[in-house]
Write a structure and sequence with these properties.
Length: 463
């Protein structure tokens, strides 16, 4: 389709000589001309991405934004209406390098050609954000972020390793909080680069040094806030692998509270800011003194109670202790009583023996084979009746469970869903649940209750 088909300059050319009469219909008005040019531009450039530097940014009370997008050799006016700019996740300012998604149009009132922007992103952030998401998905699939691999943070840190820039604001914030809360905590600064192409390798080397020295029991990796490009070393895979393999627990405090990095996700604990990390690591010395006083009082109380109990126990043992003379007299009395019982045979003993003999005779009679057979037959018949009743009951019970399970299976079956008029759309590999899974021109299959439909995608509507 030719986007310029509706406009032909020759069709509106004036005669070579003479003056157009009032009834001359070949001449077009300025409004008509601008309208034709606007239609040509909008039909020719439906949507495109343009990169440039922001200038002359105006944000009137209407909520619409007006600005100029320029590079070293050219510039173009742009408009971004409030329905589009309110969805941005950053605040653009003069001098920012941005990429806009826009269509070319023309402002008929002045005849200025311009861009109508639908979206805007920081130049470079789109590429970096994509790389971030790809690495995040890769490490997530490998289980690097799993909570089962997270090491516990010591309740009372003895020696802290701080990996950061020795001149940055982050190390100042951390040391200030530690000095205020717990000045007795030993801290070693392991200097490294926190920005630039070599920063990730520098941080990895510092982390290796901490482990080799075997002095510290906790590692803090930190730096202040910045753009996505500034914080990118903390999204490098080599740093993520080193933190995951670290033998010491690691706390990550990178950027501000809204900044999230791969370092935060793989670390054993993520603090929103460097100061918050120092708060988490160090106990408050005033609270610690109170707790020590409480433990001291509790220890003294427990010792006193233990001593009192031991004294009572000692007194009880002393009361139970008898002299050897008293013990010999008691044993002599017991010996005399035993001699009397042995010397005088009792009539009760003979009667007990007779009763035992009678009992043994009855037991022998009960062991008669015929009696045992009769008893066993009776017991066998009783057990047979119980087995029949139990089998019948179990049969009914299993039939009921089978019916219930069949009904439940039917209720959740995809075939039952299809019977109610729903359908399932699939590709060759998977069931389609999101519009991102397909693309224009792709063939898809829709399964119905009866039969299937094959379709070709001609358009995709995200909303």
């Amino acid at each position: 389709m030719n986007p310029y088909k509706s406009f032909s300059p020759q069709a509106y050319a004036s005669p070579i000589s003479g003056r157009a009469s009032a009834a001359d219909t070949s001449a077009m008005s300025v409004t008509q001309l601008n309208r034709q040019v606007k239609s040509m531009l909008e039909n020719s450039f439906l949507s495109l991405r343009v990169q440039g530097e922001l200038s002359n940014l105006a944000k009137p009370s209407s909520g619409h934004w007006y600005f100029t997008l320029k590079d070293t050799k050219a510039q173009i006016r742009c408009a971004m209406f409030k329905g589009s700019n309110r969805h941005l996740n950053f605040a653009p300012k003069e001098g920012d390098e941005v990429i806009v998604q826009a269509k070319v149009s023309l402002y008929e009132g002045r005849g200025d050609y311009q861009l109508i922007c639908n979206s805007m992103e920081e130049a470079g952030s789109g590429r970096l954000q994509l790389a971030f998401e790809q690495l995040k998905a890769k490490l997530l699939k490998e289980g690097v972020f799993d909570a089962s691999y997270k090491k516990s943070i010591p309740s009372l840190v003895k020696h802290l390793a701080v990996i950061t820039s020795p001149t940055g604001a982050a190390v100042h914030d951390v040391l200030s909080v530690l000095k205020r809360r717990f000045p007795g905590l030993a801290v070693t600064i392991y200097p490294c680069q926190v920005q630039g192409a070599q920063a990730a390798a520098s941080i990895v080397k510092a982390l290796q040094t901490v482990q080799e020295q075997q002095v510290c029991d906790l590692v803090l990796i930190t730096r202040g806030g910045g753009s996505l490009e500034d914080l990118w070393p903390f999204n490098e895979e080599q740093l993520a692998r080193s933190i995951f393999a670290c033998t010491l627990p690691v706390i990550s405090a990178v950027g501000h509270e809204v900044d999230f990095s791969i370092c935060d996700l793989v670390a054993d604990y993520r603090a929103p800011t460097p100061s918050a990390a120092a708060e988490i690591i160090s106990p408050d010395q005033d609270n610690l003194r109170i707790k020590i006083d409480q433990l001291q009082k509790s220890l003294i109380s427990n010792i006193n109670a233990t001593l009192a109990n031991n004294h009572k126990h000692h007194q009880a043992l002393a009361a139970r202790l008898k002299s050897p003379q008293q013990k010999l007299q008691l044993q002599q009395l017991q010996l005399s009583a035993l001699r009397n019982r042995l010397a005088i045979p009792t009539k009760d003993t003979l009667n007990a023996a007779k009763q035992q003999l009678s009992f043994n005779r009855q037991k022998v009679m009960s062991l008669n084979p015929q009696t045992m057979i009769n008893n066993n037959n009776t017991q066998l018949a009783h057990l047979h009746d119980q087995l029949v009743q139990f089998t019948h009951h179990q049969h009914l019970n299993y039939r009921h469970k089978l019916s219930s399970a069949a009904a439940m299976l039917h209720s959740v079956s995809p075939l039952s869903t299809l019977e109610r008029g729903y359908s399932i759309t699939i590709t060759e590999r998977q069931t389609i649940t999101k519009y991102q899974q397909v693309e224009i021109g792709q063939i898809i299959t829709t399964k119905l209750h009866s039969g299937e439909i094959e379709s070709t995608i001609t358009n995709i509507h995200p909303e």
